[in-house]
What we know:
alpha/beta
Amino acid sequence: MASIKQVQVTFDCAEPERVARFWSEVLGYVAPPPEGFDTWDDFDRALPQERQSPASASCADPSGVGPRLYFQRVPEGKVVKNRVHLDVRVGTGLVGEERLAALEAECARLIPLGAVRGRLLVADGVNESCLGMQDVEGNEFCLD
């Protein structure tokens, strides 16, 4: 059996470049154009007319450790809660007030980027605290 070498996470969205820029800022990722193209505009011009403006964007971990994120334009809007979401691990190893402070600090950094604060789930003796958020198109994610 072949082993999996890489994983890509794909987002359906209305504005791929906007969502890619948001996640690049959140995660410290970079957004290089697709292989074989010098810029995203060059890539866009190579697409059929109906798929231009741009149909997709991506961003990747510059260290190559994290998964590539790919954003593709779709005609329909978001209707229901995501079945899969990203956990942005800002509080790893922290507990109690120290963890809450880390979550709140990251939340404060992301709101000016277009994120929307959701519900804070406080530690319950089994799970540690996490903070629900939404990205610029309403996709849920957690600060964990």
